[in-house]
Specification:
This protein has 447 residues and is mainly alpha-helical. The chain is built from 15 helices and seven strands. The strands form three sheets. Strands 1-2-3 form a three-stranded antiparallel β-sheet, covered by helices on one side. α1 packs across α2, α3 packs across α6 and α8 packs antiparallel against α10.
Length: 447
Protein backbone atom coordinates (compact mmCIF):
# COMPACT_ATOMS: atom_id res chain seq x y z
CA UNK A 1 0.00 0.00 0.00
CA UNK A 2 1.30 3.44 -0.93
CA UNK A 3 1.24 6.13 1.78
CA UNK A 4 1.92 9.85 1.71
CA UNK A 5 3.00 12.46 4.23
CA UNK A 6 4.02 16.13 4.27
CA UNK A 7 7.16 16.84 6.26
CA UNK A 8 10.01 19.28 6.77
CA UNK A 9 13.61 18.27 6.03
CA UNK A 10 15.65 19.96 8.75
CA UNK A 11 18.92 18.65 7.33
CA UNK A 12 18.44 20.68 4.14
CA UNK A 13 18.37 24.14 5.72
CA UNK A 14 19.43 26.88 3.26
CA UNK A 15 21.72 29.86 3.89
CA UNK A 16 18.76 31.95 5.11
CA UNK A 17 17.93 29.40 7.80
CA UNK A 18 14.80 28.20 5.96
CA UNK A 19 13.74 24.55 5.79
CA UNK A 20 12.10 22.90 2.75
CA UNK A 21 8.79 21.02 2.60
CA UNK A 22 8.82 17.56 1.05
CA UNK A 23 6.09 15.09 0.21
CA UNK A 24 7.07 11.57 1.17
CA UNK A 25 5.61 8.65 -0.77
CA UNK A 26 6.22 5.12 0.51
CA UNK A 27 5.62 2.38 -2.04
CA UNK A 28 6.78 -1.22 -1.63
CA UNK A 29 8.66 -0.22 1.55
CA UNK A 30 10.69 2.32 -0.40
CA UNK A 31 10.46 6.01 0.49
CA UNK A 32 10.63 8.69 -2.20
CA UNK A 33 10.84 12.38 -1.36
CA UNK A 34 9.50 15.11 -3.67
CA UNK A 35 10.55 18.70 -2.99
CA UNK A 36 7.64 21.15 -3.06
CA UNK A 37 9.95 24.12 -3.59
CA UNK A 38 8.50 25.82 -0.48
CA UNK A 39 10.78 26.96 2.36
CA UNK A 40 9.94 28.44 5.79
CA UNK A 41 11.84 29.19 8.98
CA UNK A 42 11.25 26.58 11.72
CA UNK A 43 9.48 29.03 14.07
CA UNK A 44 6.62 29.41 11.58
CA UNK A 45 5.76 25.70 11.58
CA UNK A 46 2.98 24.39 13.83
CA UNK A 47 3.95 20.73 14.27
CA UNK A 48 0.86 19.87 16.34
CA UNK A 49 -1.65 21.11 13.75
CA UNK A 50 0.63 20.39 10.80
CA UNK A 51 0.19 23.89 9.40
CA UNK A 52 2.14 27.09 8.81
CA UNK A 53 1.45 29.55 11.62
CA UNK A 54 -0.68 32.60 10.87
CA UNK A 55 2.23 34.81 11.91
CA UNK A 56 3.82 34.03 8.53
CA UNK A 57 2.71 36.65 5.98
CA UNK A 58 1.95 34.00 3.33
CA UNK A 59 0.50 31.38 5.69
CA UNK A 60 -2.87 31.08 3.93
CA UNK A 61 -1.32 30.66 0.48
CA UNK A 62 1.33 28.14 1.62
CA UNK A 63 -1.19 26.06 3.62
CA UNK A 64 -3.60 25.92 0.68
CA UNK A 65 -0.81 25.07 -1.77
CA UNK A 66 0.62 22.28 0.41
CA UNK A 67 -2.85 20.85 1.13
CA UNK A 68 -3.55 20.72 -2.60
CA UNK A 69 -0.27 18.98 -3.40
CA UNK A 70 -0.73 16.48 -0.58
CA UNK A 71 -4.25 15.70 -1.85
CA UNK A 72 -2.80 15.10 -5.34
CA UNK A 73 -0.24 12.73 -3.82
CA UNK A 74 -2.95 10.83 -1.92
CA UNK A 75 -5.02 10.49 -5.11
CA UNK A 76 -1.98 9.14 -6.94
CA UNK A 77 -1.31 6.69 -4.10
CA UNK A 78 -4.91 5.48 -4.35
CA UNK A 79 -4.60 5.14 -8.11
CA UNK A 80 -1.48 3.03 -7.66
CA UNK A 81 -3.47 0.64 -5.41
CA UNK A 82 -6.47 0.36 -7.74
CA UNK A 83 -4.60 0.10 -11.04
CA UNK A 84 -1.59 -1.69 -12.46
CA UNK A 85 0.30 1.53 -13.17
CA UNK A 86 3.96 1.50 -12.14
CA UNK A 87 5.25 4.15 -9.77
CA UNK A 88 7.64 6.65 -11.27
CA UNK A 89 9.24 9.42 -9.24
CA UNK A 90 9.55 11.56 -12.37
CA UNK A 91 5.88 11.01 -13.17
CA UNK A 92 4.99 11.91 -9.59
CA UNK A 93 6.91 15.18 -9.87
CA UNK A 94 4.95 16.11 -12.97
CA UNK A 95 1.49 14.96 -11.82
CA UNK A 96 1.66 15.97 -8.15
CA UNK A 97 3.88 19.06 -8.08
CA UNK A 98 2.84 20.58 -11.39
CA UNK A 99 6.41 21.23 -12.53
CA UNK A 100 5.23 23.58 -15.28
CA UNK A 101 4.62 26.08 -12.47
CA UNK A 102 8.25 25.80 -11.43
CA UNK A 103 11.07 28.04 -12.44
CA UNK A 104 12.54 27.44 -15.88
CA UNK A 105 15.26 29.92 -14.93
CA UNK A 106 16.27 27.84 -11.90
CA UNK A 107 16.33 24.72 -14.03
CA UNK A 108 18.56 26.48 -16.59
CA UNK A 109 20.92 27.70 -13.85
CA UNK A 110 21.27 24.16 -12.50
CA UNK A 111 21.84 22.79 -15.99
CA UNK A 112 24.62 25.30 -16.69
CA UNK A 113 26.23 24.61 -13.32
CA UNK A 114 26.30 20.88 -14.13
CA UNK A 115 28.13 21.66 -17.38
CA UNK A 116 30.78 23.45 -15.35
CA UNK A 117 31.11 20.50 -12.95
CA UNK A 118 31.52 18.09 -15.87
CA UNK A 119 34.47 20.15 -17.11
CA UNK A 120 32.95 20.86 -20.52
CA UNK A 121 34.35 24.39 -20.53
CA UNK A 122 33.56 25.37 -24.13
CA UNK A 123 29.90 24.37 -23.86
CA UNK A 124 29.69 25.85 -20.35
CA UNK A 125 30.99 29.28 -21.38
CA UNK A 126 28.59 29.49 -24.33
CA UNK A 127 25.66 28.45 -22.16
CA UNK A 128 26.69 30.88 -19.41
CA UNK A 129 26.63 33.78 -21.90
CA UNK A 130 23.14 32.78 -23.10
CA UNK A 131 21.91 32.51 -19.50
CA UNK A 132 23.39 35.90 -18.56
CA UNK A 133 21.64 37.61 -21.48
CA UNK A 134 18.34 35.95 -20.58
CA UNK A 135 18.60 37.07 -16.93
CA UNK A 136 19.41 40.64 -18.02
CA UNK A 137 16.25 40.64 -20.15
CA UNK A 138 14.15 39.34 -17.23
CA UNK A 139 15.52 42.10 -14.95
CA UNK A 140 15.78 39.91 -11.82
CA UNK A 141 12.31 38.41 -12.41
CA UNK A 142 11.70 34.68 -12.51
CA UNK A 143 10.60 32.76 -15.61
CA UNK A 144 8.19 29.88 -15.08
CA UNK A 145 7.82 27.02 -17.54
CA UNK A 146 4.25 28.08 -18.29
CA UNK A 147 5.40 31.60 -19.16
CA UNK A 148 8.02 30.39 -21.61
CA UNK A 149 5.67 30.41 -24.59
CA UNK A 150 5.73 31.48 -28.24
CA UNK A 151 4.86 35.09 -27.35
CA UNK A 152 7.81 35.24 -24.94
CA UNK A 153 10.19 33.80 -27.54
CA UNK A 154 9.08 36.34 -30.16
CA UNK A 155 9.60 39.22 -27.74
CA UNK A 156 13.01 37.90 -26.66
CA UNK A 157 14.06 37.37 -30.27
CA UNK A 158 13.25 41.01 -31.02
CA UNK A 159 15.13 42.10 -27.87
CA UNK A 160 18.28 40.29 -29.01
CA UNK A 161 18.00 41.91 -32.43
CA UNK A 162 17.27 45.44 -31.23
CA UNK A 163 19.21 45.74 -27.97
CA UNK A 164 22.16 43.41 -28.52
CA UNK A 165 22.37 43.98 -32.30
CA UNK A 166 22.65 40.20 -32.70
CA UNK A 167 22.63 38.74 -36.20
CA UNK A 168 20.05 36.19 -37.31
CA UNK A 169 22.51 33.34 -36.71
CA UNK A 170 23.59 34.61 -33.27
CA UNK A 171 19.92 34.81 -32.25
CA UNK A 172 19.48 31.28 -33.59
CA UNK A 173 22.41 30.06 -31.46
CA UNK A 174 20.98 31.70 -28.31
CA UNK A 175 17.49 30.29 -28.77
CA UNK A 176 18.90 26.89 -29.68
CA UNK A 177 20.57 26.71 -26.26
CA UNK A 178 17.29 27.68 -24.54
CA UNK A 179 15.53 24.97 -26.58
CA UNK A 180 18.14 22.45 -25.39
CA UNK A 181 17.38 23.37 -21.76
CA UNK A 182 13.64 22.98 -22.32
CA UNK A 183 14.13 19.60 -24.02
CA UNK A 184 16.22 18.45 -21.05
CA UNK A 185 13.39 19.51 -18.73
CA UNK A 186 11.02 17.36 -20.83
CA UNK A 187 13.39 14.39 -20.51
CA UNK A 188 13.42 14.87 -16.74
CA UNK A 189 9.60 14.99 -16.66
CA UNK A 190 9.37 18.60 -15.50
CA UNK A 191 6.98 19.35 -18.34
CA UNK A 192 5.17 17.18 -20.92
CA UNK A 193 6.50 17.31 -24.53
CA UNK A 194 3.38 19.07 -25.83
CA UNK A 195 4.18 22.05 -23.60
CA UNK A 196 7.27 22.96 -25.64
CA UNK A 197 6.82 26.34 -27.36
CA UNK A 198 9.50 25.31 -29.86
CA UNK A 199 6.97 23.01 -31.53
CA UNK A 200 5.26 26.17 -32.79
CA UNK A 201 8.21 28.56 -32.99
CA UNK A 202 10.63 28.51 -35.92
CA UNK A 203 14.30 29.30 -35.38
CA UNK A 204 15.61 31.30 -38.31
CA UNK A 205 19.01 30.75 -39.92
CA UNK A 206 20.90 32.47 -42.72
CA UNK A 207 23.48 30.66 -44.84
CA UNK A 208 26.79 32.49 -44.49
CA UNK A 209 29.51 32.01 -47.07
CA UNK A 210 32.53 30.31 -45.51
CA UNK A 211 35.87 32.03 -46.05
CA UNK A 212 38.69 29.90 -47.46
CA UNK A 213 41.99 30.55 -49.20
CA UNK A 214 42.81 29.78 -52.81
CA UNK A 215 46.00 27.86 -53.63
CA UNK A 216 47.72 31.11 -54.52
CA UNK A 217 46.63 32.82 -51.28
CA UNK A 218 47.77 29.87 -49.17
CA UNK A 219 51.15 30.02 -50.92
CA UNK A 220 51.40 33.71 -49.99
CA UNK A 221 50.84 32.80 -46.33
CA UNK A 222 53.48 30.04 -46.54
CA UNK A 223 56.02 32.43 -48.08
CA UNK A 224 55.22 35.36 -45.77
CA UNK A 225 58.42 36.47 -44.07
CA UNK A 226 58.38 36.59 -40.28
CA UNK A 227 61.10 36.79 -37.66
CA UNK A 228 62.39 33.28 -36.78
CA UNK A 229 62.12 34.10 -33.07
CA UNK A 230 58.67 35.72 -33.13
CA UNK A 231 55.39 34.22 -31.93
CA UNK A 232 53.95 35.21 -35.30
CA UNK A 233 56.12 32.51 -36.89
CA UNK A 234 54.39 29.85 -34.74
CA UNK A 235 50.98 31.32 -35.53
CA UNK A 236 51.69 31.29 -39.27
CA UNK A 237 53.09 27.75 -39.10
CA UNK A 238 50.10 26.40 -37.18
CA UNK A 239 47.74 27.92 -39.73
CA UNK A 240 49.57 26.38 -42.69
CA UNK A 241 49.89 23.05 -40.81
CA UNK A 242 46.13 22.93 -40.28
CA UNK A 243 45.44 23.82 -43.92
CA UNK A 244 47.39 20.66 -44.88
CA UNK A 245 46.65 18.38 -41.90
CA UNK A 246 42.93 17.74 -42.14
CA UNK A 247 41.84 21.20 -41.00
CA UNK A 248 42.54 20.52 -37.32
CA UNK A 249 41.01 23.07 -34.96
CA UNK A 250 43.34 25.39 -33.08
CA UNK A 251 42.47 23.69 -29.77
CA UNK A 252 43.77 20.39 -31.20
CA UNK A 253 46.85 21.91 -32.87
CA UNK A 254 47.86 23.66 -29.65
CA UNK A 255 47.55 20.43 -27.63
CA UNK A 256 49.44 18.32 -30.16
CA UNK A 257 52.34 16.56 -28.41
CA UNK A 258 55.30 14.62 -29.77
CA UNK A 259 53.83 11.46 -28.29
CA UNK A 260 50.91 11.92 -30.72
CA UNK A 261 53.30 11.87 -33.69
CA UNK A 262 54.81 8.65 -35.05
CA UNK A 263 56.96 10.17 -37.77
CA UNK A 264 54.35 10.28 -40.50
CA UNK A 265 50.95 10.72 -38.87
CA UNK A 266 49.30 12.33 -35.84
CA UNK A 267 46.66 10.74 -33.62
CA UNK A 268 44.33 13.36 -32.16
CA UNK A 269 41.44 13.16 -29.70
CA UNK A 270 39.49 16.26 -30.71
CA UNK A 271 38.73 18.78 -27.98
CA UNK A 272 35.27 19.69 -29.29
CA UNK A 273 33.68 16.31 -30.01
CA UNK A 274 36.00 13.80 -28.35
CA UNK A 275 36.33 11.86 -31.60
CA UNK A 276 39.67 10.21 -32.39
CA UNK A 277 41.23 11.20 -35.71
CA UNK A 278 44.35 9.74 -37.34
CA UNK A 279 45.85 12.05 -39.96
CA UNK A 280 48.66 10.99 -42.28
CA UNK A 281 50.62 14.19 -42.78
CA UNK A 282 51.43 15.45 -46.28
CA UNK A 283 54.94 16.70 -47.05
CA UNK A 284 54.33 20.35 -46.14
CA UNK A 285 52.80 19.48 -42.76
CA UNK A 286 55.70 17.07 -42.04
CA UNK A 287 58.18 19.79 -42.93
CA UNK A 288 56.58 22.17 -40.42
CA UNK A 289 56.43 19.58 -37.61
CA UNK A 290 60.01 18.42 -38.11
CA UNK A 291 61.25 22.03 -38.02
CA UNK A 292 60.32 22.07 -34.31
CA UNK A 293 62.09 18.87 -33.36
CA UNK A 294 65.29 19.26 -31.33
CA UNK A 295 67.66 16.94 -29.55
CA UNK A 296 66.04 17.69 -26.18
CA UNK A 297 62.42 17.19 -27.28
CA UNK A 298 60.43 14.98 -24.88
CA UNK A 299 57.34 12.92 -25.85
CA UNK A 300 55.19 14.92 -23.41
CA UNK A 301 56.25 18.28 -24.90
CA UNK A 302 53.92 20.28 -27.11
CA UNK A 303 54.88 20.34 -30.79
CA UNK A 304 54.06 24.02 -31.17
CA UNK A 305 55.65 25.89 -28.21
CA UNK A 306 52.74 28.11 -27.22
CA UNK A 307 51.21 26.14 -24.34
CA UNK A 308 53.82 25.72 -21.61
CA UNK A 309 55.29 22.28 -20.97
CA UNK A 310 55.68 22.91 -17.24
CA UNK A 311 52.06 23.97 -16.61
CA UNK A 312 49.44 21.48 -15.39
CA UNK A 313 46.46 21.72 -17.75
CA UNK A 314 44.47 18.89 -16.14
CA UNK A 315 41.97 21.46 -14.82
CA UNK A 316 39.54 22.04 -17.75
CA UNK A 317 39.06 25.68 -16.75
CA UNK A 318 42.83 26.34 -16.86
CA UNK A 319 43.14 24.62 -20.25
CA UNK A 320 40.14 26.49 -21.67
CA UNK A 321 41.52 29.88 -20.59
CA UNK A 322 44.96 29.09 -22.05
CA UNK A 323 43.53 27.98 -25.40
CA UNK A 324 41.20 30.99 -25.57
CA UNK A 325 44.12 33.32 -24.93
CA UNK A 326 46.31 31.67 -27.59
CA UNK A 327 43.44 31.66 -30.07
CA UNK A 328 43.01 35.42 -29.67
CA UNK A 329 46.79 35.98 -29.94
CA UNK A 330 47.01 33.84 -33.09
CA UNK A 331 44.11 35.60 -34.76
CA UNK A 332 45.71 38.96 -33.99
CA UNK A 333 48.88 37.85 -35.83
CA UNK A 334 46.88 36.51 -38.78
CA UNK A 335 45.05 39.81 -39.03
CA UNK A 336 48.40 41.62 -39.20
CA UNK A 337 49.57 39.26 -41.95
CA UNK A 338 46.35 39.85 -43.88
CA UNK A 339 46.85 43.62 -43.60
CA UNK A 340 50.42 43.31 -44.85
CA UNK A 341 49.23 41.28 -47.83
CA UNK A 342 46.52 43.90 -48.50
CA UNK A 343 43.74 41.31 -48.48
CA UNK A 344 40.11 42.31 -48.13
CA UNK A 345 38.89 38.85 -47.06
CA UNK A 346 38.75 37.91 -43.39
CA UNK A 347 41.60 35.79 -42.05
CA UNK A 348 41.36 33.91 -38.76
CA UNK A 349 42.56 30.48 -37.74
CA UNK A 350 39.26 28.75 -38.49
CA UNK A 351 39.58 29.66 -42.17
CA UNK A 352 42.44 27.13 -42.33
CA UNK A 353 39.83 24.45 -41.63
CA UNK A 354 37.61 25.75 -44.44
CA UNK A 355 40.65 25.95 -46.71
CA UNK A 356 41.60 22.31 -46.14
CA UNK A 357 38.05 21.04 -46.71
CA UNK A 358 37.54 22.89 -49.99
CA UNK A 359 41.01 21.94 -51.25
CA UNK A 360 40.45 18.27 -50.40
CA UNK A 361 37.11 18.13 -52.21
CA UNK A 362 38.44 20.00 -55.24
CA UNK A 363 41.31 17.53 -55.49
CA UNK A 364 38.85 14.63 -55.59
CA UNK A 365 38.79 13.34 -51.99
CA UNK A 366 35.52 11.56 -51.21
CA UNK A 367 33.21 13.59 -48.97
CA UNK A 368 32.90 10.81 -46.37
CA UNK A 369 36.70 10.82 -45.93
CA UNK A 370 36.70 14.61 -45.57
CA UNK A 371 33.94 14.30 -42.96
CA UNK A 372 35.87 11.66 -40.99
CA UNK A 373 39.14 13.58 -41.01
CA UNK A 374 37.37 16.75 -39.87
CA UNK A 375 35.76 14.88 -36.98
CA UNK A 376 32.23 15.77 -38.09
CA UNK A 377 29.49 13.81 -36.32
CA UNK A 378 27.34 14.01 -39.44
CA UNK A 379 28.18 14.16 -43.14
CA UNK A 380 25.54 16.90 -43.44
CA UNK A 381 28.01 19.28 -41.79
CA UNK A 382 30.60 18.45 -44.45
CA UNK A 383 28.13 18.93 -47.29
CA UNK A 384 28.40 22.70 -46.76
CA UNK A 385 31.91 22.50 -48.22
CA UNK A 386 30.70 20.35 -51.11
CA UNK A 387 28.24 23.13 -51.98
CA UNK A 388 31.13 25.61 -52.04
CA UNK A 389 33.07 23.38 -54.43
CA UNK A 390 29.97 22.84 -56.58
CA UNK A 391 29.44 26.59 -56.69
CA UNK A 392 33.02 26.99 -57.90
CA UNK A 393 32.45 24.31 -60.52
CA UNK A 394 29.24 26.03 -61.62
CA UNK A 395 31.13 29.30 -61.93
CA UNK A 396 33.89 27.55 -63.89
CA UNK A 397 31.31 26.08 -66.28
CA UNK A 398 29.67 29.47 -66.62
CA UNK A 399 33.01 31.06 -67.50
CA UNK A 400 33.70 28.18 -69.89
CA UNK A 401 30.36 28.73 -71.60
CA UNK A 402 30.92 32.49 -71.78
CA UNK A 403 34.33 31.86 -73.35
CA UNK A 404 32.77 29.59 -75.98
CA UNK A 405 30.13 32.20 -76.80
CA UNK A 406 32.78 34.91 -76.99
CA UNK A 407 35.00 32.80 -79.25
CA UNK A 408 32.07 31.97 -81.53
CA UNK A 409 31.20 35.66 -81.77
CA UNK A 410 34.81 36.57 -82.54
CA UNK A 411 34.97 33.91 -85.27
CA UNK A 412 31.76 35.24 -86.78
CA UNK A 413 33.10 38.79 -86.80
CA UNK A 414 36.37 37.56 -88.29
CA UNK A 415 34.54 35.70 -91.07
CA UNK A 416 32.52 38.80 -91.91
CA UNK A 417 35.67 40.91 -92.22
CA UNK A 418 37.28 38.26 -94.38
CA UNK A 419 34.31 38.24 -96.75
CA UNK A 420 34.48 42.03 -97.08
CA UNK A 421 38.19 41.90 -97.95
CA UNK A 422 37.57 39.29 -100.66
CA UNK A 423 34.89 41.43 -102.27
CA UNK A 424 37.14 44.49 -102.32
CA UNK A 425 40.14 42.66 -103.83
CA UNK A 426 38.13 40.86 -106.60
CA UNK A 427 38.85 42.68 -110.06
CA UNK A 428 35.88 44.13 -111.96
CA UNK A 429 35.07 42.52 -115.39
CA UNK A 430 36.00 44.75 -118.45
CA UNK A 431 33.11 45.65 -120.74
CA UNK A 432 33.72 44.87 -124.50
CA UNK A 433 33.67 47.91 -126.89
CA UNK A 434 33.08 45.71 -129.91
CA UNK A 435 29.50 45.45 -131.15
CA UNK A 436 27.85 42.17 -130.37
CA UNK A 437 27.25 40.05 -133.48
CA UNK A 438 24.71 37.35 -133.34
CA UNK A 439 25.62 33.86 -134.59
CA UNK A 440 23.00 34.01 -137.40
CA UNK A 441 24.54 37.24 -138.69
CA UNK A 442 28.00 35.63 -138.79
CA UNK A 443 26.66 32.81 -140.98
CA UNK A 444 25.03 35.23 -143.38
CA UNK A 445 28.25 37.20 -143.79
CA UNK A 446 30.19 34.05 -144.62
CA UNK A 447 27.62 33.14 -147.25
Amino acid sequence: MATTKLLLKYNKKNKMGEIPFYIRIIKNRKAHFLSTGIFIKPEYWDEENHRVRKSHKNASYINAYLAGKLADAERMALDLETSKNDYSKKKAKREILGRSDESFLSFAENYVEKLKEKGNQGTYHKAEIVLRKLKQYLKNKDLKFDNLNVAFLKDYEEHLRAEHKNSVNTIHSNLKVIRRWFNEAIREDYVPPEKSPFLRFKLNWENVEKTFLTEDELKQIEDFEVSPTSAKRHHRNMYVFSAYAGGLRISDVLQLKWENFDGERVLVTTQKTGSVVSVKLPAKALEIVNSYKTGVTKPSDFVFPLLKNDVDYSDPAVLYDAISSMNAYTNKSLKEIKTSLKWSKNLNFHTSRHTWATRALKKGMRIEYVSKLMGHSSIKTTQVYAKIVNADLDQAMKEFDETLVKEAKERKEKDKKKEKKIKVKQPAQKLSTKPTIKKSEKIQKKA
